[in-house]
Amino acid sequence: MNKLFVIGLPRTGTTSISVALLDYDFSVAHTAFTKRAFELADVVSDAPCFSDYRQLDGLFPGSRFVYLRRDITLWLPSIRRLLKKMADNIQPKTGSFNPVLKRSFYQTFGSLDDADAFSDAHLSQCYSDHQAQVLAYFDGRDDLLQLDISDANSLPTLLDFIGIEHQTGKSLPHVNRGNVVDHWKETKHPNKVNPLSAGVDHRQFFDY
User: Fold this and answer.
1) For the CA atoms of 91, 92, 93, 96, what is the dihedral angle to 10 degrees?
2) pTM exceeds 0.90, yes or no
3) How many domains does the chain have?
4) For 88-125, how does the pLDDT look when each residue is reduced to its tens digit (9 = 90+)?
5) Which of 5, 23, 50, 93 is such that its CA lies 20 to 30 A from the CA of 100?
6) pLDDT value at position 1?
7) Taking 80 as the threshold, does the pLDDT of residue 71 lie above it?
8) Cα–Cα distance list, 166 to 29, 68, 113, 169 (Å)
9) Is 199 inside a domain boundary?
10) Other beta carbons less than 10 A from residue 179's beta carbon
């Protein structure tokens, strides 16, 4: 396996997957904004993977991808809380967040200044469009796993997909519940990869 990219949208369980795989000797980046971060990580999740999976597929041939599903009625209030919390910081021109993250969110959710930016109708359409695009892109291939982390067998299914033996009794952790969004930042583990890791190109991102 070259890389594993988790390409589900935010609030579908990207942090839970990332935390779980730290304990299987994978180097994991939950978000990655430099070339070096992608080079260092075995697993990359969240931004910009959910918007850039096509480009990453070309850059890292032989990689595998995990698309995370979530009940839309649970996802809507969760993503709405997140987007409202991030709104000022992901403004394309004035926001303080990393430019790669801002672009990734803008491509997927559009402008948060739009009147219907936080409506159920708009966010549901964003979810449906993303899902349809992912499934169309990977149609006929065997390197995409669709997973709902609320399923009891989600961890063994994931580990089987990447060729790792499952330990009986272990299950995926469900982190970032409710208003919590910073569990990854608080997680201490030697296998965590800094999303802003610097290399020979300093902190440059890919030029695609």
Assistant:
1) 60
2) yes
3) 1
4) 999 999 999 999 999 999 999 999 999 999 999 999 99
5) 23
6) 63
7) yes
8) 22, 20, 45, 9
9) no
10) 9
C-alpha torsion 190→21→15→105, nearest 10: 90
Largest CA distance in the chain: 49
CB atoms within 10 A of CB 67: 21
Residue reference for tokens 């910073």: 182
Q: What is the reported pLDDT for 178?
A: 56
- The reply to whether 99 falls in a domain is yes
Residue 196 lies in a domain: no
Q: What's the chain's average pLDDT?
A: 93
What does the pLDDT read at residue 179? 56
- Residues 159 and 100: their CA atoms lie apart, in Å, by 29
pLDDT reading at 69 higher than 80:
yes
Structural domain containing residue 115: 4-186
Q: Is residue 156 part of a domain?
A: yes
Q: Give per-residue pLDDT as tens, 128-173.
A: 999 999 999 999 999 999 999 999 899 999 999 999 987 766 777 7
Contacts of 57 (CB under 8 A, 6+ apart): 63, 65
* CATH number for 91: 3.40.50.300
